[in-house]
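Figure 2 data, in text form.
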Amino acid sequence: MSSLEFGAYPPRLSDADRERALEVLREGAAQGRVSQDTFMQRTDAILHAQWQSELHAVLHDLPTRRPRGRWLAEGIARVLAFPGALRKAWQSERLPELLLPMPASYPYSIGRAPGSMLRLNHYTVSRTHAQLRNTGDGWKLRDLGSSNGTWVNGSRVTGSVRVRPGDVVRFGQIGFKLVVAEPPPRAL
């Protein structure tokens, strides 16, 4: 006996069906087609529905598709954002390289202060901005409470974070791409 023969019931609703129905209801409320009381009653009905016909009864007066204007606006927003994304990708490839330090007992200091190992003379860099240290199992970058922040791959550093060659770091508005020193060629 196949499911199309006598006695077959339609499938029960899945969570995805309910979620789509709630999205249609939220859109209707956002467009002002549904009052708050009606929204609450219909939400309850959707959550308790077991069959597709029950969902249809709740949503029969609401449009089930997004308005075309919204798709157009989203498409235009993506097109307008493209040059910025392209510029960001171009600039990240053209960043100066910062050589990761060799293993040592002292941290590599970064900032505007005269004693910094990497002295960055820019108004967005704090006097004692950050420290870079080789811990033996990798490198750690630590922000020293800078006012404009230390960033690794677009995420702000709070405390210390592990960094690797190829990571993009930024101190205030000054950015670098981390690289590791190539060992000198061995003589034959």
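Caption note: Helices lie at 15-30, 36-48, 52-59, 68-93.
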